[in-house]
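Quick start: read one record
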Amino acid sequence: MDYKIIAQQVANLAKEVGAKLMQYRKENAVQVEIKGKHDFVTQMDKYSEKLLVEGLSEILPEAGYIAEEGTRTDRGEKYNWIIDPIDGTTNFIHGVPPHAISIALMEDDKIVAGVIYELCGKELFVSSLGGGAYLNGEQIHVSNTKTVEESLISTGFPYSNFERMQQYMKLFMHFTHHSAGLRRHGSAATDLAYVAAGRFDAFFEYDLKPYDVAAGVLLVTEAGGKVGDFAGGDNYIFGKEIVATNATIYDEFMTPTKEAFGK
């Protein structure tokens, strides 16, 4: 299978669905449903996912799905699409950037293609295993920032699971004092894409789902960065915690992370 061709087909689909989604929003009021505490879904999330599933089934009919809104729930034996139809739904509801379509293809247990389309800026991030990472057709790389002290870090605040809030705040306070600044955009997929593009030097968050991070993980690694869980391991797709940095500061970043979360 040519992962690069697959990634480009997915990118074309993401742009097409993104255009339809933004047009649909212009013509319709946002209708919000509550899935859980501070966890929202709109009719536009469902509309986007339906279009994505229809298009992805044509690209790779044998693949199964891990999709946020459950439009398809069948799992494939070898291939599975991991889909977030709108990452940053709360932002989307309020008309605040960023919000993005995120699509990854998993073969067995590895991500082989990833696409993030940030809708407000019309920025299309595309990666394939061994094929590099691109933004609107131009190859991108992580930053070359040398220390955490010089780094701009992105994060996401817990919104429903506060079990590790004390540990999170310990790490948040550490980086507040020992970095160039922290930012919270409200879209993990976009944050990871920005790490890949060198805009952020690092990103960390917990209580994330596979569809929040799968595409972004490949973008970061293909752009030359490093990704891990809070122990420095590789359980970041399904493990609900992630650290992503450039190639230089990863070890330095992991030291306070492991300490804060008792890893």
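The helical segments are 3-27, 43-59, 89-94, 165-177, 188-196, 210-222, 250-260.
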